[in-house]
Amino acid sequence: MRTSNAPSDPSERQGADLAKRVLDGDWRALARAISWVENDHAGAAALAAALYPRTGHAHVIGVTGPPGAGKSTLVDALTTLIRQEAMSVGIIAVDPTSPFTGGAVLGDRVRMQQHAGDPGVFIRSMASRKSAGGLAPTTRDVVRALDAFGRDIILVETVGVGQIELEIMKVADTVLVVTVPGLGDGVQTIKAGLFEIADIFVVNMADRPGANQTVADLKTMLTLGGAEERRRRWKPPVLETIATAGTGVDKVWQACQQHRLVLDTDERMGRSRSRLREEVVEAVQRRIGAYVGEELSRNGSMESVLAAVLRREIDPRAAAQEIVSTHLKSR
User: Fold this and answer.
1) Helix (H) or strand (E) holding 153
2) Disulfide check for 189: which of 32, 66, 80, 298 has CB 3.0–4.6 Å away?
3) Tens digit of each residue's pLDDT (9 = 90 or more) over 97-154
4) Residue 102: predicted pLDDT
């Protein structure tokens, strides 16, 4: 008869032990915990379960926008300001994964070397692993690890693949959309999706020609935007920066703090509820998909249907329906 609440499975014990070390402020344990999460280690589930009750305190700021907009430089400058206020920082920089080799340069931390020796700053680069939304699949779990570790502010920089980087809104409390002058027709890079998720617009490299026009275009778009509830409570400011010189970055940090104040408890809870619901649904879908894939591979029931698709006898949608129906009848 068991008299202890200690996990009986070795991987669960390892996960619980590593979580304790993270909560105790062990930097090496935090680095290992993030690696476990990224690589789906056997103890990652127990680790995440132990850390989760200690999360929900950090202010998560997402930084997204097109490639070359200076996101890393802005993150570096923001970190300097935040540290001047004696607040701890966690930085997650997501780098694109090669579709050919599967590798990633993970070079964003090179731009942040001035913080490398600062115990108040933890920097982690992550490979996007072919995710299309600008983040790595495990970014949310890494954010939670940094949150449980006690970071006050967590800065999440997305890949920078363009107009489809909407996953950041599922992670961040405050979303900065960064652009620069000269990227095309006015605000060519700020299309509907990115425009709608932005809490703060940053026109970086504002010393370039055309900066005033980019700012004017963004402000015009804001006046034409919908009057949804979040826009009634907070109108996204359009701020100019020269991140390489630190110019204007203080205003961006002030806007982030003001936005957090606007997000009162009820709204924060509402956002969290929606995001967590979506995350649970996505996790269920992944589990079901993995289970179905394993079952179909095991019994080979897909092969005859796939052969029929290749012969153009049935279309892929009908094939999927047939596979599902056959599988359900066999249960």
Assistant:
1) strand 153-157
2) 66
3) 544 444 444 555 555 677 878 999 999 988 765 554 456 668 889 999 999 999 999 9
4) 45
Q: Are 158 and 135 in contact (CB under 8 A)?
A: yes
Q: What is the pLDDT of residues 15-46, one digit of tens each?
A: 999 999 999 999 999 999 999 998 889 999 99
CA distance 232 to 226: 9
What is the per-residue pLDDT for 278? 79
Query: Which residues contact residue 286 at a Cβ distance below 8 angstroms, ignoring those fewer than 6 apart?
Result: none
DSSP E strands: which ranges in 36-142?
59-64, 89-95, 121-127
Instruction: State the Cα angle at 279 between 278 and 284, rounded to 5°.
Output: 100
Q: Are 140 and 49 in contact (CB under 8 A)?
A: no
Judge whether 199 and 168 are in contact, CB under 8 Å. Answer: no
Whole-angstrom CA distances from 177 to 124, 173, 248, 288 are: 21, 13, 15, 34
How many Cα atoms are found within 13 Å in the side-chain-facing hemisphere of 291? 8
Q: Which of 305-309, 310-314, 327-331 has the lowest mean pLDDT?
A: 327-331
Looking at residue 313, its amino acid is E
Which residue carries 């692993």 as its tokens?
129
For the beta carbon of residue 51, count every other beta carbon within 10 angstroms: 24
Cα distance between residue 294 and residue 286, in whole Å: 12
Q: CA-CA distance, 77 to 92, in Å (whole number)?
A: 15
Does 251 score more than 70 pLDDT? yes
User: What does the block give as tokens for 180?
Assistant: 């620069």
Nearest to 205 by CA among 176, 251, 164, 239: 239
Q: What percent of the chain has pLDDT over 70?
A: 76
Nearest-5° angle of CA 157, CA 141, CA 201? 25
Decide if 141 contacts 171 (C-beta within 8 A). Answer: no
